[in-house]
Amino acid sequence: MSSNNNNSSMQNSPCGQTHWGRDRLPHKQASPGFSVWSILKKCFGRELYKIAMPVEFNEPLSFLQRMTESFEYSELLEQAAVKDDPVERMKLVAAFAVAALSSNLDRLKKPFNPLLAETFELDRTKENGFRLICEQVSHHPPISAFHGESVNGGYIVEGCVNPRLKFWGRSVEIKPEGSVRVRFPKRDNEEYIWSNVDCCIHNIILGTLYFEQYGDQIITCDKTDLQCRINYKAANGPTDIQLHSLLGYIINKAGQKVAKISGRWCHEVYTYSMAGEGGQPLWQVKPRPPHSADYYNFTEMAMALNEMPRLDGGNSTRSANGHLASTDSRFRPDIRLLEEGDLNGASAEKHRLEEKQRETRKARGKNAEWKPLWFEKISDTYFRYLGGYWDRPVDMLLPDIY
Could you tell me which residues belong to the region Disordered (predicted)? Predict the structure, then answer.
């Protein structure tokens, strides 16, 4: 066991600043020194999370960090919380669900699999009015849980994801199994629930590489008897006009359509009345940095997620109370080395951490049930936050996972 600590030797020196923090990584993305096909041909039809992949297949973020990107447009929930019209609230919740997918565009490398008991905190109470804690609550199957809350009490968001990845010869299929729940405490805990939609990276080996989200997403709210049914259109290729498009309707208890939404999950969402009046914008994506392609196609938010706490008090994704849990993803040496361009070092550390996790699991016993630190299991698709993370003692002992 090890106590919380802040390792000053891991500080970054950002070249510039954005609202989120540093505006780029310490090192540009490196090209793999091998044939991608030489690795993937061994993976046909298999779950990729079960296979040890070279670090060249990774982006320098943990999946826990990647999950927090769904909060980039948290202001949509702030807006929804103060709307008196339930249809307007549903529109904005739907826009949040769509916007949560936008950072996936062109993100063609996989995040690192979190280690069991790994955590990631994102405290944006001063800048964006929310804070968020994530934890890897299960290793087999790999399940990541999160709990986010508005500092003014306007909303609570929680959920869990079990990402299933398979390679099918020309494409990688991603099924992020799990659900998301949004509650508005000031509206008698009015709750909205939806599941994640599937996605696919096409033409991995030959042809024009492209990414798409597809399938149906149903957002339900029992208190208002409203549903929003969104269909993410499947495309027939990278030039298909349907690529990235979506169409949805808000439906009342009687089964009547009361509003329409449409747009593209990577660009914008508009709402229309059923009378066919002109569309009103609900959400529009923020432009990515001009140098994004050099850094794994990261958004401004993603660039800053692995930044260590800054000592000058400027913008960063640091903890507002000045200390991180020793289990925080920012302390992972393999991710840190990859973002610094040290592929050999990252590979060695990734292997060491995987072996350490195996030894820890072996010592714990094959049939011993793991108890998460900050969440409790309610069902396979719901882990409830227990509380206490933000008030924990500075010297609290936590699992030594790194």
Answer: 1-24
Is residue 203 within 8 Å of residue 170, measured between CB atoms?
yes
**Domain parsing of the chain, residue ranges:** 36-308+316-389
pTM of the model: 0.90
> CATH number of 36-308+316-389: 1.10.10.10, 2.40.160.120, 3.30.70.890, 3.40.50.1970?
2.40.160.120
Residues 17-24, mean pLDDT to the nearest whole number? 88
Do the beta carbons of residue 304 and residue 21 sit within 8 Å? yes
Gap between the Cα atoms of 194 and 383, Å rounded: 15
Q: At residue 230, what are phi and psi to the nearest 5 degrees?
A: -115, 130
Q: Which two tokens stand for residue 73?
A: 């447009």
Q: Tokens for 90, please give them.
A: 């549903």
pLDDT(341) > 90 = yes
Listed in sequence order, the residues at least 6 apart from 23 whose beta carbon sits closer than 8 Å to its beta carbon are: 14, 15, 16, 17, 289, 300, 303
